[in-house]
Amino acid sequence: MIKIAVLVSGGGTNLQALIDSWKKNELGGGELSLVISSRAGVLALKRAEDAGLKTITIDRKKYAQLSGFDEAVSGALAENNISLVVLAGFLCILGQKTLKTYKNRIINVHPSLIPSFCGKGYYGLRVHEAALEYGVKVSGATVHLVNEVIDGGKIILQKAVDVLPGDTPETLQKRVMQEAEHIILPKAVEMFCRGEII
Ligand code: GAR
């Protein structure tokens, strides 16, 4: 059984997609065992609690240095015997200790077709604002392995989504979430748990 931790920062719709897949036995034998939130009081925590999952809040604001946050995150993962870390709307950078310990065992969902609109500063709604400003006609989502380069790890899955006339960052975000992220993130977790990624 592969024990999975999901790291979140906000609304938790990607976490919900993972919970829904898990309940349908569609995570390739992986088990959701822990949800870590970098912010207190977010909807993602309520979704986790409603699903009966253990939650830990490690508030990024309370750590002056990344190293302290890194110690707390890697400590929580170790204590819970986690094998796979899934960043599902996690809007913080991970530290070296976590990255090294979980090399090739951290996956992230990003709301664009990497290498477009990714890297430092591109997260959440900002990604869709940039896509609309540029005028692309197709956007989408990417699930990739996480390494030291922001959004730079090996790509696992991508799915394209049309940009429609009249789109706002909010409408585009919603379509990318529903038609891409919520489909390819559980699929990538399933692939990992079946040993199909590395
Ligand atoms: C999602 O669109 C996710 O791809 C994005 O934040 C949103 C969180 O939504 N993540 C990033 O931008 C990471 N670079 P959620 O909390 O409802 O899953």
Question: How would you describe this structure to a colleague?
Answer:
37% of the residues lie in helices and 22% in strands. The chain has six helices and seven strands; from the N terminus they run E-H-E-H-E-H-E-H-E-H-E-E-H. The chain is an alpha/beta fold and 198 residues long. A seven-stranded mixed sheet has the order 3-2-1-4-5-6-7, with helices on both faces. The two termini are 17 Å apart. The mean pLDDT is 97. The radius of gyration is 16 Å and the shape is globular. It binds glycinamide ribonucleotide.
Structural class: alpha/beta
From the N-terminal CA to the C-terminal CA, the straight-line distance is 17 Å
As residue ranges, the low-confidence spans are none
Question: What does the largest sheet look like?
Answer: 7 strands, mixed
- Binned, the helix content reads 25-40%
Number of helices: 6
The dominant shape is globular
Radius of gyration: 16 Å
State the total count of DSSP E strands. Answer: 7
Could you tell me the strand content as a percent range?
15-25%
Average of the residue pLDDT scores? 97
What is the element string, with H for helices and E for strands? EHEHEHEHEHEEH
Bound molecules: glycinamide ribonucleotide
Strand line-up of the largest beta sheet: 3-2-1-4-5-6-7
